[in-house]
Amino acid sequence: DGGITQSPKYLFRKEGQNVTLSCEQNLNHDAMYWYRQDPGQGLRLIYYSQIVNDFQKGDIAEGYSVSREKKESFPLTVTSAQKNPTAFYLCASSIYEGAQANEQYFGPGTRLTVT
Amino acid sequence: QKEVEQDPGPLSVPEGAIVSLNCTYSNSAFQYFMWYRQYSRKGPELLMYTYSSGNKEDGRFTAQVDKSSKYISLFIRDSQPSDSATYLCAMKASGTYKYIFGTGTRLKVLA
Q1: Residue A40: what pLDDT?
Q2: Is pLDDT at B58 greater than 90 in this prediction?
Q3: C-alpha to C-alpha distance for B2 and A44, rounded to whole angstroms
Q4: Among residues 41-80 of chain A, which lie with CB inside 8 Å of chain B?
Q5: Which residue in A has a C-alpha nearest to residue B9's C-alpha?
């Protein structure tokens, strides 16, 4: 089955700890994205990557970091510098911009709770 | 003003009704339009994708794009309780990797 997997589904951490969320896709998509979803606020873009070893900050990148060492993988690290890390995190991917098809697909999400 | 506006609802309808969900946008450069369904605590599921203007139908779902009015719609025919979810619209311009999302409309279909 082709798709996007995120792990873990639920994650609990103490304040001050860094935590890494996993995202893997086998859709052969070039672009990958991380969003944060909070109640009543919609989806906010954290980081995106168009190709391997390249990524750009989104609208709310402060306190987060990413890497893109493989086409299939785009892990997100939530650092202790992120002031309000408790949220639902969604990973997404899409085919390259030049193609006619530009749909974006989402993973199942990771719910992070920091206390 | 937000680039994409979407009524948050909730929208409650009886089973079997036709549902109309809408988004308006301000950026005339948007070319790609999507509708997602999101159940509570799940990732958004792509329902419909449309490039540029026109209509697209898939089963009980119809997506419409009116670029002259900067308005997109999703119609759900014969709505079912299982359609109860939050519906997100999204759009993108050519030459950019950034997708712009509405905040979502919560739909409740009552049995």
Answers
A1: 77
A2: yes
A3: 13
A4: 41-43, 45, 48, 50, 56, 58
A5: A40
